[in-house]
């Protein structure tokens, strides 16, 4: 499975994404803003970064700019936001984010599907609870 | 009897002409909007004080000058624009009144946003000039921007707790916290449906703000309407079946492909069909039909539901209005659906109307011209609800 970094300032959502992706077999670290995330990246090399845009201290767009400047590898960045058609999204995509997903209506299965598609992996059927 | 001499008659007529000219001048000066008039060559013949003040010009700078030389269209950043689509040119060529919004360059180099209405002046069926009224809309633009920003931020803040409700309810449903019994699943289903309604309401409010502030994108691309109606019926059919309503589709012959905005047309039809299903009792029938007419394509959404009382009909497209006979039957409506439909249809250059009888049903008509919808630049695309 893959290393995934979740960057989300809402503690409840951060915890939920960690749990969902961990249960799918991924190795997940998390941060609550872009600044914390850059520190995490010193010791954690994710294949995929799940990034919120509107965050205190350092926003998602500011994070991508610093990420691009630094020597952090070539993680795929997925923007996960409740904004839509906003300048921040366009800027994030221009700076190299792979995809933007509206999070208010993305169920756990949807999140797992998107993440595994980007990682070219099959969802871990054994670990995803079934109805 | 006293007979006026020829000289006296001429003097009297001259006095009357001068007086009527002074009256016209006074009338034009009193207009609260900027006014510029031209002759048939586009040379400015008349301007009022409001126009001069708005453009930062003096009368001598403008009278006798060619309209495009002094009324300079620019982009919001001050860069000059191609003059081909200038409203006054369109008015001359079409012989029709043209309404538009532009930016004009002021004499001090700054830019003023204006809303204008320009009409050709016709004499004996021929254009002999043009008259343009315009006003500064700077404050309206600022107010619209503040309103759009507020709604955008408020919606984002509303969506964040909604994301948590939705995500955790789904996690419970999917068994992340252990197996659930049937009753627990039913409860979670209620939470998810309520969260879905809240999400749709936020989207509707956002869409209304976009249409009201003119920031909604309207595309003008080829759309196969026959395919579109089939797709919409497939999308809506599950909710019809759930309520025990028979939903049918009838597609007329030779429905053309026209240039319009597929997303907006889908939203109008989906909304009309959802309304028809919502306001028709179990076991009822709802139908969508589409035919082509001489100048337009006509969509018809017919139901045999509760109908609209006569006293409610004049208000049915008003914001937040709900007909009295349905508020007790369907308490969950917002009164925003038909208001939004009406505004979207207007932005598509179409028309929407209805007829209805209480307890017999309603028929809503939606027409789109064969010539299609004009493209409108905007900032945001319509956010369609999750049906």
The CATH architecture of the largest domain in chain B would be 2-Layer Sandwich
Distance between the termini of chain B: 88 Å
CATH class category name of chain A: Alpha Beta
Helix content of chain B: 40-55%
Q: What does the average pLDDT of chain B come to?
A: 87
Name given to the CATH homologous superfamily of the largest domain in chain B: Histidine kinase-like ATPase, C-terminal domain
Assembly state: heterodimer
What is the domain tally of chain B?
3
Average pLDDT, all residues of chain A? 85
Question: Helix and strand succession of chain B?
Answer: HEEHHHEHEEEHHEHEEHEEHHEE
Q: Largest interface by residue count?
A: A-B, 24 and 24 residues
> What is the CATH domain class of the largest domain in chain B?
Alpha Beta
Radius of gyration of chain A, whole Å:
14 Å
Write structural notes for this entry.
The complex is a heterodimer of chains A (131) and B (387). Chain A has helices at residues 11-23, 34-40, 60-69, 87-94, 108-118, and strands spanning 3-7, 27-31, 48-51, 76-81, 99-102. Chain A has 131 residues and is of the alpha/beta class. In chain A, strands 2-1-3-4-5 form a five-stranded parallel β-sheet, with helices on both faces. Chain A is globular. Chain B is of the alpha+beta class. Chain B has three domains: 31-136, 2-Layer Sandwich (Beta-Lactamase); 141-212; 221-369, Heat Shock Protein 90, CATH 3.30.565. Chain B has a six-stranded antiparallel β-sheet, with helices on both faces. Chain B has a five-stranded mixed β-sheet with strand order 8-10-11-13-12, with helices on one face. A two-stranded antiparallel sheet of chain B has the order 7-9. In chain B, β12 and β13 form a beta hairpin. In chain B, α6 runs antiparallel to α7 and α8 (225-242) runs parallel beside α9. The chains are: A alpha/beta (131), B alpha+beta (387). Chain A binds chain B through residues 10, 12-13, 16, 19-20, 23, 54, 82-86, 103-109, 128-131, and chain B through 152, 155-156, 159-160, 162-164, 166-168, 170-171, 173-176, 196, 199, 379-381, 383, 386.
